[in-house]
Structure formats: C-alpha cells, structure tokens
Amino acid sequence: MVLNSIAPIRDAAAAGLGLAFLPQAYVSEQVASGHLIQVLGDWRKTFEGYHLYYANRRHASSAFSLLVEALRYRKA
Fold first, then answer.
1. pTM of the full predicted structure?
2. Which of 3, 6, 42, 51 is 20 to 30 Å from 19 by CA-CA measure?
3. Where are the domains of the chain?
C-alpha cells in the first residue's frame, strides 16, 4: 500500500493494515485512546524541527525573503 498523506496513513494503521512511521503530534490522540500503539519506541528519533531548502539567496524576491524570515526558528 502506498499513501502520500498523513491522515490516510494513520487511518490505515488504526484499521490494522500495517505499521506507520508518523510524527507523534499526529497520532497522540489515537495512542492515548488505544487505537494505535507505539512500537520500536527505542528507535524513535527526537523531532528536531523542519528545514527549508531553497536556491541561492541572491535572487530571492522580497516576498520570499519575508516568508523565510517568518518561518525561521528563533529560540526564546
């Protein structure tokens, strides 16, 4: 089975159709309710955040530069 969206992957796993590798934030309710269980917990990586990859900054439009600045992670 090949799925390319998180919700159908989560739903397929909850229906017993196989294992799913999904971010904890997307399955926490299902795990808490018992519809899903965590397996291989010792192998789980800690989420380090999202990354934005883009071409050379010299040619970035001002709108794109503003988007990058808005998305940039800042530690409080």
1. 0.57
2. 51
3. 6-42
